[in-house]
Structure formats: structure tokens, C-alpha cells
């Protein structure tokens, strides 16, 4: 049975794109409290089903698919640039295809403006009307207003005119950063990207017996199987270890492990992989908020995802990418790494930041472990002894030493030098992630 929260989300999803909604409206329509409606609308905003704009309200927008996540709706533009909607409110749900800075003559502007674009321009009234007539929205910078004729045209065409107090360069930078951030988000692998769906998942009911389990297990040789009720709700996990030595008439419900660790579809693959390592799991059930099983992921699935992600070109540059791009093997000492401190890796004092140093140590340690033994690893704990701050532009030599390696754990010691002077020492414990 669905919860009130899920019913509200389904109700919001069924609304027409562009429709305005409110907490009071949802509460009345579904006979729930305003507090319940408010929480569900906030979740819908997280899921990018709606967008809330100050002084305008909450608008149903088109849910973005992963392949076009880098596109912004005009409603999102309003929030990014702290804008005010001057006209064309009914078009805020629409998605922009590109933005154009109107630093050119009108005749030249016509060549760049097309339907679905956003013209960023100051108080040039003719440019506003030109853009709207071409099917483009308008972002007026410098806090200027628009003419009544332009506002009327915007309302007729359902194309927003937005005013922002920022200048054109700042607005373009803010929009570019928002698109850039969403491109990074697009690259992050989620559990829903690698899950084995329920239709392909072998499951057991609590009333099934051990004899049936053994029969199925001999054919598949999987490490574990979800146990569900008839309504699809997950209640446990059963493995061959659970069934060993049990009487064949014993029910699965009595031998299974109840209340298993689970993940939801929006969990990142990296987070799920860490949970599997730390808990020693080979299989994780994937469930929704209602507790219904949606599928499973295995260690092999996570490893393949890690390997695929490493081969993919990166569109958005994260701090990890910047750190890795600065790493170079030292000639004649391939286990050691040379590293140059770039501006993006510094703190407010111009010294190497703790975050960049942590990333550097993690990556150098992973590399050293791969040179000794193939496979993925994740840091479990880290101890850093800072001896001296490292300034912008400094070159660092990182010398990793594997102190101990077992089947599951690796201890790596690090010495960091700058101009032959010891500047830091660290110790990192890694867990190995094997098939």
C-alpha cells in the first residue's frame, strides 16, 4: 500500500507541465495535512519535478532525463540569477537550449537567436521584442525594467522576461557554472544505472523451503538472493551459508538474514560500493521508499561500473580531476609521484588545501596498490601529520610505501617532499575491493 508521501508525488507527476501548485491545493486535493503536502513538494523539488520561485510560486516542470540534464528551465534560471519575472510566467517551465549575450547590433543578433534560446541583454527595448518574436526568452541585466509592449508580447507568447540586478558577464558566468555543475552530476553513476531489475532477479518467498533453495542455487551459483513477501516487500536475504546444514523442510523465512542492508536507486555507485566493502557484502538489494524490491546490484556490477567510469571522458572538471591531471610519475622511480600545486587546490591563504592533499594521498596510494596487486581499493582511515604549509606553484614529490598487505587490507605510508625538504607524513589504511 502506498504512503501519503508517495501518493502526493504521483499526483504532482500527473499534473500538466507548467501548472502552478501550492501546499494548500495539494492538501485539499488529497485530504492530507499541509505539513505532509509541504514535505512531499520539497521532495518533488529534489527530484526536479517542480521548481519554486520567490514571488511566483511552485511550478510543475518537465523531469529531466540523464541525457539532457545539463539543460536548464527558465524557472531554474530565475533562481540562479536571483531574478524577478516581468512577464511570460506561463512559460517558466520551458527548457532553454542555449543562451546568447546581446553585445551586438540588432541585425547581427537575428542570426544567433532562435526558438528556445535565452537572450542576455541590458535595457535595449528593441532587442527584447526581437528575441520574443523569434521564440526566445529574455534576461534583462543591470536590474532594468522592460517596456509594457514587451511584457504584453511575452504574456501572449508564454516566453519569460526576467530581470536580474547582475551585469551580463556575471549572469552568463552563473548560468555557465550551473550547466557545468549539472554536467558533473550527469557523469556520476547511480545505482539505478547498473541495477539488475526485479524481472531478472531470482527471489524467494519466506514459505519456500531449503530444498527448493538448494535446487535453484545449484543452477545459478549466485552468492545470495532477496526474500520478499507476496506484495514484493523485501524482508531478508538468504545465502548458501544460511542454508548449509539446515533440514530441507525448513522454510526460508527461518534461515534467512532479516532486515538486510539496502540502497535506493538514487544512491551513488561509489557509496554503494563502499557499503559493500565495509560490511563484507556481495549483494545489495535496491528498494524504494515503500520497501518494495526494485532489483539488486552485485560486487561485479560495481566493479564494472568503476572500470567503465575510468574509461569515460570527463566533461565537468572536479577537484579530483584537477589533482589527478597534475600527477606525474618520477623518472626512474615510477612508484613516486611529482605534483604541482595549482590555484584551484589552495585555501584562502594560498597554501595547499587539506581537501586537495587528501585527494592526492588517496590517488597515489590507489596507484601504488594497483602496481602491486590489480583491483580497486578505498581508504578506510587516514592520518596526516602536517609539518609545513605548501605554497601555490610548489612542486611536491610523494613517496608511498606499502607497509603491510593482506587479503582485505593494505597499509600505506607516505612521505611528501618539496625542494628536498620533508613537508608532511601520512598513513592511510585501504580496504581491497575484490570480486
TrEMBL record:
<dbReference type="InterPro" id="IPR046342">
    <property type="entry name" value="CBS_dom_sf"/>
</dbReference>
<dbReference type="InterPro" id="IPR010766">
    <property type="entry name" value="DRTGG"/>
</dbReference>
<dbReference type="InterPro" id="IPR000644">
    <property type="entry name" value="CBS_dom"/>
</dbReference>
<dbReference type="InterPro" id="IPR029069">
    <property type="entry name" value="HotDog_dom_sf"/>
</dbReference>
<dbReference type="Pfam" id="PF07085">
    <property type="entry name" value="DRTGG"/>
</dbReference>
<dbReference type="Pfam" id="PF03061">
    <property type="entry name" value="4HBT"/>
</dbReference>
<dbReference type="InterPro" id="IPR028979">
    <property type="entry name" value="Ser_kin/Pase_Hpr-like_N_sf"/>
</dbReference>
<feature type="domain" description="CBS">
    <location>
        <begin position="256"/>
        <end position="314"/>
    </location>
</feature>
<dbReference type="InterPro" id="IPR006683">
    <property type="entry name" value="Thioestr_dom"/>
</dbReference>
<protein>
    <submittedName>
        <fullName>DRTGG domain-containing protein</fullName>
    </submittedName>
</protein>
<dbReference type="InterPro" id="IPR051257">
    <property type="entry name" value="Diverse_CBS-Domain"/>
</dbReference>
<dbReference type="Pfam" id="PF00571">
    <property type="entry name" value="CBS"/>
</dbReference>
<dbReference type="InterPro" id="IPR036388">
    <property type="entry name" value="WH-like_DNA-bd_sf"/>
</dbReference>
<keyword id="KW-0129">CBS domain</keyword>
<feature type="domain" description="CBS">
    <location>
        <begin position="195"/>
        <end position="255"/>
    </location>
</feature>
